[in-house]
Design goal:
N-utilizing Substance Protein B Homolog, Chain A; globular; 160 residues; mainly alpha
Length: 160
């Protein structure tokens, strides 16, 4: 498991806990991100940044998710799936250095591990539709390593 995977799993847990308890985001961040990832500062920093950006972007992400989750209102999506979709959408929108394929694949794999048997397929369908739509809108602003795989997305977007 990559250290970024560890970070994403902890962020998903933190988003979930924060939403379920309507609690203090800083307390959740400390307990579920800072303490478990304390020995790896770069992973911890990535996780903290992802958590904070996801909270900042949540309203926008929810609108995007609802648009692509056919017949699903955001509050009806399983809480873990909702957290993962918010996190992955935030990565697509705000993390220029993260390749879109990585954001998508990580969300799917974490969904398979932590959520329902069908969650991997559901998350895949929704986040893939989001990815193509963001590309078509010119909202995937990737640089450096984030450009890896963009040619494949452009090909897929052109054929849809």
């Amino acid at each position: 498991m990559s250290s970024r995977r560890d970070a994403r799993e902890q962020v998903m847990k933190t988003l979930y806990a924060n939403e379920q308890t309507d609690g203090d985001a800083e307390q959740a961040l400390h307990a579920l991100v800072r303490v478990p990832l304390d020995e790896d500062p770069s992973t911890r920093d990535f996780a903290e940044h992802l958590f904070r950006e996801t909270l900042k972007t949540m309203e926008e992400a929810d609108e995007i998710i609802e648009k692509h989750a056919d017949n699903w209102e955001i509050h009806r999506i399983a809480a873990i799936d909702r957290s993962l979709l918010r996190m992955a959408t935030t990565e697509l929108l705000k993390f220029e250095e993260v390749p879109p394929k990585v954001s998508v694949d990580e969300a799917i794999e974490i969904a398979k591990r932590y959520s329902t048997p069908r969650s991997g397929t559901f998350v895949n369908g929704v986040i893939d539709a989001i990815l193509l739509d963001l590309h078509d809108q010119g909202r995937l602003n990737k640089t450096g390593r984030g450009l890896i795989g963009m040619d494949t997305i452009q090909e897929r977007a052109g054929s849809s």
